[in-house]
Request: fold
Amino acid sequence: SQTIHQWPATLVQPVGSPLSLECTVEGTSNPNLYWYRQAAGRGLQLLFYSVGIGQISSEVPQNLSASRPQDRQFILSSKKLLLSDSGFYLCAWSRPDRGTSPLHFGNGTRLTVT
Amino acid sequence: AQKITQTQPGMFVQEKEAVTLDCTYDTSDQSYGLFWYKQPSSGEMIFLIYQGSYDEQNATEGRYSLNFQKARKSANLVISASQLGDSAMYFCAMRESGGFKTIFGAGTRLFVKA
Reply:
């Protein structure tokens, strides 16, 4: 069966510090990978998605970036965090088909920028 | 452009009763998929049910069913025999076939009363 791991679960970082969130998927090959952000009490906003190694599409560039160094590894980064980067970050994967495959989410990272 | 609208910020239901959570969507595509997800207070996103735009029958998964009215562009979630564990946020989502981007509504918070 497929599993998705995301860490850390919580993170408190000062403004201006770097960020690295990591997500790995097991039990499937060539998944589509996604990073979403959820503000408190709100819906999910797509940040990045990837359909293959090194292929990243950005929906909300801002000061965040994503990388996919391996087939089942997806990393969300920032060089300098802003207060507005606080939120709940969710990594997800789906089968590499289009349209019908649901997203399967990790447990999320709650980021607080102070 | 795609859009998902959930007009009920919060809903209350008595335990063992049925409840309907509303979702309307907007898309110019003829082929798309509709999804419902549950988010308990722990934060994880759990996939519940899927409906394809060309599916003639309403989707069902255990106590969950999707009331799909294509002409009205609505995809309401029906939860039968509510349980205390159903208390959570519920998100309606859509992805156009041939696309990678799943968009989410703002969510409905469901409270199940004993």
Q: What stands out?
A: The two ends of chain A are 38 Å apart (CA to CA). Residues 49 and 87 of chain A are 18 Å apart (CA to CA). DSSP finds no helices and eleven strands in chain A.
